[in-house]
Known about the structure:
The protein has 295 residues and is of the alpha/beta class.
Amino acid sequence: xxxxxxxxxxxxxxxxxxxxxxxxxxxxxxxxxxxxxxxxxxxxxxxxxxxxxxxxxxxxxxxxxxxxxxxxxxxxxxxxxxxxxxxxxxxxxxxxxxxxxxxxxxxxxxxxxxxxxxxxxxxxxxxxxxxxxxxxxxxxxxxxxxxxxxxxxxxxxxxxxxxxxxxxxxxxxxxxxxxxxxxxxxxxxxxxxxxxxxxxxxxxxxxxxxxxxxxxxxxxxxxxxxxxxxxxxxxxxxxxxxxxxxxxxxxxxxxxxxxxxxxxxxxxxxxxxxxxxxxxxxxxxxxxxxxxxxx
Length: 295
């Protein structure tokens, strides 16, 4: 990819993977007029039903059908298939100067080793977005942060993709990809799991499911906004933040054997934050004993 295109149109981008991430990325790049030409390769025998096809992107069902004059390649396949796809690309008649990215959150650029050995600049660009649908996912990608790895032309391609998606870049230190992805799991996947627990407890309290879900989502949204605005220490509220030992004890008394360890584990994390706000040492000690004993 020519350097002058770094913050402009990408040229001919080849996206390998016709799942939610690949199609969402392709659609947003097209909507933002960020690519001159877009080719998508997938396993389906024909192009999926999607706004990109047939007019705005070319669909190919086989890696052996190599597009011509490719400026950059994005591998958007399941994590376990990245190395295999990369090795297959390395055996294709693609210019060795062509930069290649993958979109995995947990895998480093090591999985592109076969391409690197052939001379390809390699990197990764992972969007911090929950993409549940290949069409609405395009707007989910707009403006989000991306975890970035790579140097040279791979970094230039990653920057072009992020810029085209109106996003922000998070530079990941060498070897930091698994921990980076674990952070994303805590913030997204486990937040969903915690809301599921909260909804179950609301049901036990007699609150109807739809009403509980709406109320809890609003409560969680406010907490997230407070963290974004002030940071987790200042955003912490609730009984641990207040040093309310009696309320925590009441919770633990009524929770099930399955729910209590989770409550205690998170309670200890909350206590760590509360201590930073100057929580009374006697209350903190009582909470630490209570949360530890119920583990």
